[in-house]
Amino acid sequence: xxxxxxxxxxxxxxxxxxxxxxxxxxxxxxxxxxxxxxxxxxxxxxxxxxxxxxxxxxxxxxxxxxxxxxxxxxxxxxxxxxxxxxxxxxxxxxxxxxxxxxxxxxxxxxxxxxxxxxxxxxxxxxxxxxxxxxxxxxxxxxxxxxxxxxxxxxxxxxxxxxxxxxxxxxxxxxxxxxxxxxxxxxxxxxxxxxxxxxxxxxxxxxxxxxxxxxxxxxxxxxxxx
Length: 225
Known about the structure:
By secondary structure, the protein is α+β, with helices and mostly antiparallel strands. It has two domains: 6-75, CATH 2.40.50.580; 81-219, 3-Layer(aba) Sandwich (Trna Endonuclease, Chain: A, domain 1). It has helices at residues 81-94, 145-159, 186-198; strands spanning 6-13, 19-24, 27-33, 48-53, 63-70, 73-76, 99-106, 109-117, 120-129, 131-133, 136-139, 163-170, 177-180, 201-210, 213-219. A six-stranded mixed beta sheet has the order 7-8-9-12-14-15. A five-stranded mixed barrel has the order 1-2-3-5-4. A three-stranded mixed beta sheet has the order 10-11-13. A hairpin with a 2-residue loop joins β8 and β9. α2 (145-159) packs parallel to α3.
């Protein structure tokens, strides 16, 4: 996936989940943060950031904050980017003749993707990952009841004959492995292990990230325990 009109800036502060103050072209701007997660390890005052100039005179915020330079490694923090990247990658993963539909309702949850190829029915839930510690990508960065519910729904779908996946899209490259964040959300970590044992495929991929692009790149090891 590609962004247009990307400019470089400096992160100053984040007064709430939705906005940040950044220095852009020598002027302090209020910008939209496209990720409501904590991102404390990334959004540090003085850090280089990349923003998309939306060129819209009707918006309250002219810029969207989309990427952060963390000690030379570029992290995309746009929460919409993983689904867009997976949508581009799915025909390669499942086959070009597969019918793919986003936002599929199963049980009481909305699963990110449904795909069908003959009698093969696939459900895939996508989780974007921006938290990294000592080379290990971790999810979530805050407790997520919704994420746990998605895993429970996928486990039920296995019983109904679906082929199920949860894919963790690490929004950077250079990580060595992925693990559920047991310390932050033990319930999610437990649900992920149970789902995997029930037949849900747990995948993790890193991404090639530039200031104006993010593309799924290579699978990385998943360590559940």
